[in-house]
Design a protein that fits this description.
It is globular and about 30 Å long. A hairpin with a 2-residue loop joins strand 1 and strand 2. It is about 5% helix and about 60% strand. It is mainly beta.
Length: about 70
């Protein structure tokens, strides 16, 4: 899985993430996810890796998508 700006390449298509809200005290982020022509509003739990970087788990494979890699302005 590769991130390009606000896009995430899952091996077949690009998936776009746009931040709607970021709840730092609750460690949640709400995103508009554009995936294969469909737009969904999804709230993800944020996790912290051992280096202190925030990420959320995406797809059935629970791929880690790091906020830092997506270049999100939060």
């Amino acid at each position: 899985m590769v991130c390009f700006g606000n896009d995430f390449y899952d091996g077949e298509d690009f998936i776009s993430f746009d931040v709607i809200s970021y709840q730092k005290p609750y460690k949640e982020i709400t995103l508009a996810v554009s995936n294969r022509g469909k737009i969904s509003i999804v709230t993800y739990d944020l996790f912290e890796d051992r280096f202190g970087r925030l990420y959320f788990e995406y797809s059935n494979a629970l791929d880690r998508v790091y906020l830092r890699d997506l270049e999100l302005d939060i």
